[in-house]
What does this fold into?
Amino acid sequence: MGALPMPTVLIIPTGIGCQQGGFAGDGLPVARLLAAASGCLVTHPNVLNAASLYWPDARIHYTEGWALDRFCRGQTALRPCHRHCLGLLLDGGLEPELLERHRQAAAAARFSLGLSIGPEVVTPEPLGVRLEQGGSGISWGGLNRVDLLLAAGRELRRRGATAVAVVTRFPDESPMSSLLQNYRHGHGVDAMAGAEAVISHLLVRELGLPCAHAPAVRPLPLLSDVDPRAAAEELGYTFLPSVLAGLSRAPRLVPAAEAQGGDLLAQQVGALVAPHGALGGPAVLAASEGRIPVLAVHNPSQLEVTAAALGLEGVINVANYQEAAGVVLSLREGLDPDALQRPLGQTARK
It folds into this structure.
């Protein structure tokens, strides 16, 4: 009989320009590999969303980033769910054509994929997305009308939604426009990702429901030399399909004190995988404090928050995600990764 699944957390932070996982779903092959190695993977929408593309895998638990941090800190349990009533939260700033395109995407998800699409709320005024860039080079942002966002989310929950897909109108022209062009050519950071994370964090914290975000922009002009990692965002009028597919089986968020048999808890996690320069987040620090093996993958980004900079001990440095999958598999099989190192005594732990 094979080894039991070993729950593993994969984090590739949003908006920091990771060379792998920092584009339009190019972290999805990594998630598939680690899901196969571990038998149970918890990761966030940024890793799995590829605009019109997605990949269903019952071993992968689609968990918004704020909720994933709470899970790793032992505050939230994840309850597997095979069917949600998906609420649509649509920005009042969407032009009629863009609004209709997103409604068509939801209809396609319902009648082509069989997803349960539930209530819809359009905010009475534009939400007013702002795009910004931090001093470290990462993307950031916010909303002018957080009150309208949260009120719409509460209304969807009242009307029976058990997960929320939110679409907000992103500005076509902003000081971040040059970042978008660089991103399409495979350089720099995703200008929209930081604001997307803020929006989904706000909703999950307010509603306690799985949520994920799709930005709405005008169709981009054809670019013949677009970077392949960004190509998924060139395929259509909306990024909503992958969000709906991912949310349709996202685990329910349950207070850890109310966990039941079959729920995933932080103490069951056997490993956490993150980029080597992005180890300062709450999930990584909680794993380190809980003596869960942290695998730091060489995956350059705008950040250099390394194990050495933080004084973290016991971190396993690996050269790529294939090597990380091998370490995860060895841990799942009960093998000491150090026993596989040659020459003896030469390990990558820091």
In short: The radius of gyration is 20 Å. Residues 8-77+266-340 form a domain with the Rossmann fold fold (CATH 3.40.50). The first strand starts at residue 8 and ends at 10. The mean pLDDT is 92.
